[in-house]
Amino acid sequence: MMDVKIFYGFGDVLFEVAMALIPLLLFFLFFQIFMLKMPFKRVKDIFIGLIFTFLGLSFFLQGVHVGFLPVGREIGDTVGDWNHQWILIPVGFLLGFVATFAEPAVRVLNTEVDKVTSGYIPSTLMLYTLSIGVAISIALAMARIIYGIPLWNFILP
């Protein structure tokens, strides 16, 4: 049985999330004091939302550190030892496509673009285009790493 320490490193995660949210808080406070001047109840609601955001991000990232990263490292170690590493290129393509295709934020973006363009850019076309674009970029990144291709060969053109 694996010994999992659920809250190991949670202090670091709390600090990282705080450092990410503090600039947003300062930005809001600056505009609230000098321009917005929203009523106290509205500001209070925003601060409550900020607290929920802080807690949500902290627990989410801790879950990623405890659950996903160790599994990803194990998979990476196993797959990295394969004799035929070229297989990683189509695997990367497939994972990039599926991850983008299933991402809820991408679907929301596609729906909004479909609405704003009055259907001129259909949401399904944009979904497939984004998914294929991400898949190609991940496949190229895999090929670059496996074959030692310099990054400049991709950036310069």
Name the descriptors.
157 residues, mainly alpha
Tell the overall outline.
extended
Strand content of the residues, in percent?
under 5%
Major β-sheet annotation: none
Gap between N and C termini: 51 Å
- Average pLDDT taken over every residue: 93
Element-by-element helix/strand order: HHHHHH
Number of strands: 0
Low-confidence stretches: none
* Total count of domains: 2
Brief rundown of the structure:
The chain has 157 residues and is an all-alpha fold. 80% of the residues lie in helices and 0% in strands. The chain has helices at 10-36, 40-80, 88-102, 104-116, 123-147, 152-155.
Structure explained in plain terms:
This protein has 157 residues and is mainly alpha-helical. It is 80% helix and 0% strand. The protein contains six helices and no strands. The chain has helices spanning 10-36, 40-80, 88-102, 104-116, 123-147, 152-155. The mean pLDDT is 93.
Task: Give the topology.
Elements lengths: L9 H27 L3 H41 L7 H15 L1 H13 L6 H25 L4 H4 L2
